[in-house]
Amino acid sequence: MAALVRTMVRIRAFENAAEQASRGGVSAYGKAADGTARVRGPLHLSTGQEAVPAGVCAHLATDDYLTSTHRGHGHTLAKGADLTRMMCELFGKATGFNGGKGGSMHIADFSVGMLGANGVVAAGLPIAVGAAHAQKLQGRTGITVCFFGDGAINRGPFLEALNWAQVYQLPVLFVCEDNRWSATTASGPMISGEGASARAESFGIPATKVDGNDVIAVHAAAERLVAEVRGGGARACCTPSPTA
Ligand SMILES: Cc1ncc(C[n+]2csc(CCOP(=O)(O)OP(=O)(O)O)c2C)c(N)n1
Predict the structure, then answer these.
(1) Ligand 1, atom 19: nearest CA belongs to which residue?
(2) 99 CB-near residues (< 8 Å, 6+ apart)
(3) Model pTM?
(4) How far is the CA of 11 from the centre of ligand 1 (A)?
(5) What is the per-residue pLDDT across 183-215, written as a single tens digit (0 to 9) for each?
(6) Domains of the chain
(7) 130 C-beta neighbours (distance < 10 Å), count
(8) Whose alpha carbon is nearest atom 9 of ligand 1?
(9) Closest ligand 1 atom to the C-alpha of 148?
(10) How far does the chain reach from its first CA to its final CA, in angstroms?
């Protein structure tokens, strides 16, 4: 439990500091008019969603892969990426993960299996499936975890990725962080049917729903799901946050 709380606090502290540093607006050039440093480019925080990456990533090893979203700081830190290099990336510094060229939405740290945040909604899904296919073909022990938002499930790559993962029985865990919003648009009126879990099940992928605000419940569900994925075959997990 202490380790989960530590991860959540670490994520919140990082994002609070990044938000503080971007006060007055993010800057295209990394500096405000008065010359002070600024976060460079867009900054999407995951405040309130820390329980999901903390609970899921607690079960992952370095050789497991992870793909993320435009809201990827929590996933990246929970996977073990270096906090200082992440902050350097936000400030556009050469010492950042991408030499300061990528910024918040393109942070990647291959050394811990973090294959990248992604500014394109649903783009992480096919990348995760490709990574999981490589793991299977090469007979590696690692699995891939794919985080995405509920807004991603109306995009084509979501359907293509789940289909491919099930057809080839790939070691991938799809985790839908359902905060009930697609950024600024309420997701509910835009989603037909029963949502992420039902769509996964329609492909034959077993799906689990767990309260995304309850880190202990997420941790317990993920422990089982990760073990099942290691045993072979895809799984899906939807983490609705009732109070989002
Ligand atoms: C392909 C694509 N279309 C539109 C956008 C603009 N956009 C940015 S965030 C977002 C909503 C994402 O919703 P969700 O995945 O649920 O994540 P949330 O922001 O709610 O955490 C959209 C449509 C985009 N980045 N990529």
Answers:
(1) 183
(2) none
(3) 0.95
(4) 21
(5) 999 999 999 999 999 999 999 999 999 999 999
(6) 2-238 (3.40.50.970)
(7) 18
(8) 183
(9) 15
(10) 23
